[in-house]
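Late entry, evening session. Most of the bench is empty. Finally got around to the prediction I had been postponing all week. Sequence below, unchanged from the version circulated by S.P.
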Amino acid sequence: MSRAAGIRKPTTIAAIVLAVGALLGCAGGGGGGTNSGGPTIQVPTPTPTPKPVSCLLAHLMHASTAWVAPRPVKPAVIPNRIGSGPARRVCGYAGPGQMRCMAWKRTDATLSPAVASGYGPADLQAAYSLPSNSNGIGQTVAIVDAFDDPKAESDLAVYRSTFALPPCTTANGCFLKVNQSGATSPLPPTDPSSCSSPQGCWEEEEALDIDMVSAVCPNCHIVLIEADGQNGGGDLYVAENTAAQKCAATEISNSWNGSEYALEKNDDVNFDHPGIPITFASGDSGYPGGYPTASTFVTAVGGTTLKNAGLPTQTETTWNSSGALCSQYIAQPSWQANVPTVVNNPGVCTMRINNDVAAVGDPGTPVAVYTTYGGDKGWLGFGGTSVATPIIASVYALAGNGASINDGSYSYSHKTSLTDIIAGSITPCSGYSGTYICNSNIGYDGPTGNGSPNGIGGF
């Protein structure tokens, strides 16, 4: 045998799937058969119907395949920077027990869907001083959302190619889309709300989330977990546990939220996953925010207005529609009770306060997102704490410190590695107007918590 003939070819995902399929008995079909007393009749082997691949099994396959992140040789497109303009919520208000996504999208008639407008990866990485090119290898950021986005992977490919990021596909082991049980099929239905309705749909939220993980942590694996619907207990909470228990997530991002309810503390078990940082969007309606963001087991994320990202003239203030909260039902953890702002303002809030940290969320300083599902196809500008939340989850991934994260407390002892947001306020602010719950100031405050990333030391 020649030396060339003896070289072992690298195992591919497809080969592993076939091998696993054989082990699971899904190779299907019989071989040839004989007809007694007559000539041999060849019975064709039918093409097997692939069985669903579990999330954990897929990740075992990923682990056996070296995923290297080669960058495209072409230069990244520089997106157009745009100022403030009209925007609307992507998801409408949800009913009792339901959650809604927290994305906003720009509706400017003058913005071309053929041109990327808003902040791109280089802008966000520069704005927050992130080591995105080198860090994040071996991390898996799970995105939990509702309903299926049939265009998720193909749209992600356009986003990453446009900005010269390494490909992230199912084939190369970087991307995976599963249902709320962690299987690749059957996937849930699409959002019954039309993307061309006055608002939008969860599919646009999903596109936003996976694009933001790509922008901040291009070396991370991405698992998109699609819940059957937007109910909390029956759908999204199940998907949350799947992310932690079946999908080997090292970080979990949740760009959705709901109203607080009396028995919410009982549901904290769904977010109590030590060693996995979990980020939640605080909302987009000023005060109050809601649950699950109120849980002490998660990092509550507020939104900012980020102007001139990455430039010497960069400024960052509180987005006036960011969510904030003094919880009705969740007790104040010790790591908040000891904060000077809280100590020096006794009686303002004695319960769990949102937020812990913040990042860009103002649709007036939007990020560029590519999506082709629904009526608005192509490049869109997005805002909301839905932008900030996957950004923060991805900063956790860059830090690689998740094993020591059990709740939302880490930033409170690492404030020097954050940029304190000292200006701005949110509206409406019923009952807390003029207090730190709704007004940014030096030190901790409700809208932006301990501040926005300045490197990865705060995570």
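Two things to note before I forget:
The longest helix spans residues 202-216.
The first strand starts at residue 87 and ends at 89.
Will write this up properly tomorrow.
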